[in-house]
Specification:
Order of helices and strands: HHEHHEHEHEHEHEEEHHHEEHEEEHEE
Helix content: 40-55%
CATH topology of the largest domain: Aspartate Aminotransferase, domain 2
CATH architecture of the largest domain: 3-Layer(aba) Sandwich
Strand content: 15-25%
Structural class: alpha/beta
Largest sheet: 7 strands, mixed
CATH class of the largest domain: Alpha Beta
Number of helices: 13
Bound molecules: pyridoxal-5'-phosphate
């Protein structure tokens, strides 16, 4: 079979593959605990459902403008005013099929083959593949001090005349680390000085703990939005638990938005009008759902961290937000893929190998499930790995006997 060079270079999405595996095992009646999941389990906001249902009832379900319906663009303008304290124009906004498409279209609009895109590691699994889809070169950079918090020096070290863009994701998937306002200020200034595009992937920006406040990168921008190369990415997936609705957006200078719109118009056209209506409902609706999701995640994270801290040999850094804990299991196995497979095979717990995020020896554990799933999931992992655990473990009626330590 003859396939393109780009087609052959793209890896499958491991997180989506894991969801598939969990569904297959569950359908067979296996007692799977999915700690790999990347979506909240709460229901979509009622305002979103009612808005979509009312449009569906009208029976008038048509194409939309390629950059989104005016009501959604207006809602995003308002959101940007509320959350980022910056008044932008609808011409600075494009609505896409998820934040994923917004990032992809932005990259397609700015990258030429061989351009480099720098991003801190560990990173969201899709960044390297999206950059490669544009024929460009991903340049991940691990913080030199071994922490999850990159410094400006870390980033500057790998930037060259080939660097076209930097992607910053804070709070971060997979580490949950929220970068400091000082770091964001430095990176905005650096990109402005060097005329580098800065893509701020803010998809988790309201899911933060300990009374932290979201940081607006616009606070540090010296120029107007239309003169700048700053691209803000956000969406409804995580904050409103609306992953299946597939609505995300980008806010950037209007010339770039125009080019992104042209690309999107030939790719998918505008997102489904029903789902855009739902997004308008969520953004303009009652916002207490975001606070209550945040409180649930904060509590789940605390429970997971407490349990992990009683686990010898495991190093767990407290996340500042998101619904992930990125945990160092290298004491047990330096190969995170082998370890994740072992845990699935022996105790039916799904985790995501750190290797996929550019840092081996770690596993990403999700706090999206119920407290019962979290506690039982960690208990099972502990039983499987800790040589001091009893020889047997009951999962429901099923007795597991350890035959590997
Ligand atoms: C860091 C990051 N950016 C973007 C996305 C994509 O979000 P969406 O569901 O809106 O496409 C995800 C989803 O997992 C993510 O973790």
């Amino acid at each position: 079979m003859s396939l393109s060079i780009i087609g052959r270079s793209i890896a499958e999405s491991v997180t989506l593959k894991l969801n598939e595996t969990a569904a297959i095992l569950r359908a067979k009646g296996e007692p799977v605990i999915h700690l790999g999941i990347g979506e909240p389990k709460t229901k979509a906001p009622l305002d979103a459902i009612l808005a979509a249902a009312s449009l569906l009832n009208s029976g008038e379900i048509r194409y939309t403008p390629a950059d989104g319906i005016p009501a959604l663009k207006q809602a995003i303008v308002r959101y940007t005013g509320d959350q980022y304290k910056r008044i932008v124009s609808p011409m600075n906004v494009i609505a896409s099929g998820g934040a994923k498409q917004a990032i992809m279209v932005a990259l397609q609009a700015i990258l030429n083959p061989q351009d480099e895109v720098v991003f801190p590691a560990p990173y969201w699994v899709s960044y390297p593949e999206m950059v490669k889809l544009c024929g460009a070169v991903p340049v991940p950079v691990l913080p030199e001090d071994g922490s999850f918090y990159p410094t400006m020096e870390d980033i500057a070290r790998v930037c060259s005349s080939y660097t076209k863009a930097i992607i910053i994701n804070s709070p971060n998937n997979p580490t949950g680390a929220m970068y400091s306002a000082d770091f964001i200020a430095e990176i905005v200034e650096f990109c402005e000085k060097r005329s580098i595009y800065l893509i701020m992937d803010d998809i988790y920006h309201r899911l933060i703990f300990d009374n932290r406040k979201p940081i607006s990168c616009y606070d540090f921008l010296k120029t107007s939005v239309d003169e700048s190369k700053l691209i803000i990415i956000n969406g409804v997936s995580k904050q409103y638990a609306m992953t299946g609705f597939r609505i995300g957006w980008a806010v950037a200078n209007r010339k770039l938005i125009e080019v992104m719109t042209n690309i999107q118009s030939h790719q998918t056209s505008g997102p489904s009008v029903v789902l855009q209506a739902a997004a308008v409902g969520a953004i303009n609706g009652i916002q207490s759902c975001v606070d209550s999701l945040c409180a649930t995640l904060e509590n789940n994270t605390k429970v997971m961290m407490d349990q992990l801290h009683s686990f010898e040999g495991v190093r767990a850094t407290k996340p500042d937000g998101t619904f992930y804990c990125f945990v160092d299991f290298s004491h047990y196995n330096k190969d995170s893929s082998k370890l994740a497979f072992f845990l699935l095979d022996k105790v039916r717990v799904i985790t995501v190998p750190g290797k996929e995020f550019g840092l081996d020896g770690y596993l990403r554990l999700s706090t999206c499930g119920s407290l019962k799933e979290i506690t039982q999931g960690i208990e099972r992992i502990k039983w499987a790995l800790d040589p001091n655990s009893p020889n047997e473990l009951y999962i429901g009626e099923r007795k597991l006997v350890r035959d590997w330590l």
